[in-house]
């Protein structure tokens, strides 16, 4: 006997409660989560929070045959099972509309799990390093943002010039060469300043 996944809508701020209640009732439950990391503006300490990825929604696996939706709906924190309206004859004179639960392909749930395991939803330093958005050090991050050969516009004495990155030093500052009046001169710029300048795109090859 196979299994099918269904989306469950929870009561407000009851995702974790519904997850615990459903698991205690014997259901296989998947509540996608994301983590957010922020630095306290005063203490500079890093604070970590975890939230449901989809507010008020989680997923439950049920057997293909004889799925027990009755017990599921009675679990704490559960509001309803997502589905589509279906007209069911109630008597000769009238019909009634019920919600027919719609299964979610298992491959979609597995894809969501893989993304979560790969830190795709997290906004943390660890996730950014894993996704290669930043480096483990200031120098490494700067090298990733401004690799050797990157060109950027800057000003020297109020005159605009184009500089070319030659290195990122131990302090994490960008070292570059700029042509001043026909001579190449070295300059050092903080990475935060380079980011504020206009990066020059490489010209397309003819």
Question: Features of this protein?
Answer:
206 residues; alpha+beta; Alpha-Beta Plaits; SH3 type barrels; 2 domains
What does this structure look like?
The protein is of the alpha+beta class and 206 residues long. It folds into two domains: 128 residues, NusG, N-terminal domain (Alpha-Beta Plaits); 63 residues, Roll (SH3 type barrels), CATH 2.30.30. It is built from six helices and 13 strands. A hairpin with a 2-residue loop joins strand 9 and strand 10. The longest helix has 12 residues. The chain is elongated and about 95 Å long.
Order of helices and strands: EHEEEEHEEEHHHEEEEHE
CATH superfamily of the largest domain: NusG, N-terminal domain
Q: Outline, from the CA principal axes?
A: elongated
CATH topology of the largest domain: Alpha-Beta Plaits
Mean pLDDT: 87
CATH class of the largest domain: Alpha Beta
Q: Helical proportion?
A: 10-25%
Briefly note the structural class of the backbone: alpha+beta
What does the largest sheet look like? 5 strands, antiparallel
How large is the count of helical segments? 6
CATH architecture of the largest domain: 2-Layer Sandwich
Compute the gyration radius: what is it? 28 Å
Strand order of the largest sheet: 12-11-10-9-13
Unreliable residue stretches: none
Would you count the extended β strands for me?
13
Number of domains: 2
Please state roughly what percent of the residues sit in beta strands, choosing from under 5%, 5-15%, 15-25%, 25-35%, 35-45% or over 45%.
35-45%
From the N-terminal CA to the C-terminal CA, the straight-line distance is 62 Å
């Amino acid at each position: 006997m196979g299994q099918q996944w269904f989306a469950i809508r929870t009561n407000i701020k009851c995702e974790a409660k519904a997850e615990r209640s459903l698991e205690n009732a014997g259901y296989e439950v998947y509540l996608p989560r994301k983590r957010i990391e922020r630095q306290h503006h005063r203490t500079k300490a890093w604070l970590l929070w975890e939230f449901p990825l989809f507010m008020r929604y989680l997923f439950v696996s049920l057997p293909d045959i004889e799925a027990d939706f009755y017990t599921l709906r009675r679990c704490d924190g559960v509001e309803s099972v997502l589905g589509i309206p279906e007209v069911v004859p109630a008597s000769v004179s009238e019909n009634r509309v019920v919600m027919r639960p719609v299964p979610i392909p298992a491959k979609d749930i597995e894809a969501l799990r893989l993304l979560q395991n790969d830190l795709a939803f997290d906004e943390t330093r660890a996730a950014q390093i894993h996704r290669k958005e930043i480096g483990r050090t200031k120098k490494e991050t700067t090298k990733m943002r401004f690799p050797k050969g990157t060109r950027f516009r800057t000003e020297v004495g109020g005159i605009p010039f184009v500089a070319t990155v030659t290195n990122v030093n131990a302090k994490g500052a960008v070292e570059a060469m700029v042509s001043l009046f026909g001579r190449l001169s070295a300059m050092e710029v903080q990475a935060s300043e380079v980011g504020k300048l206009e990066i020059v795109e490489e010209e397309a090859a003819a």
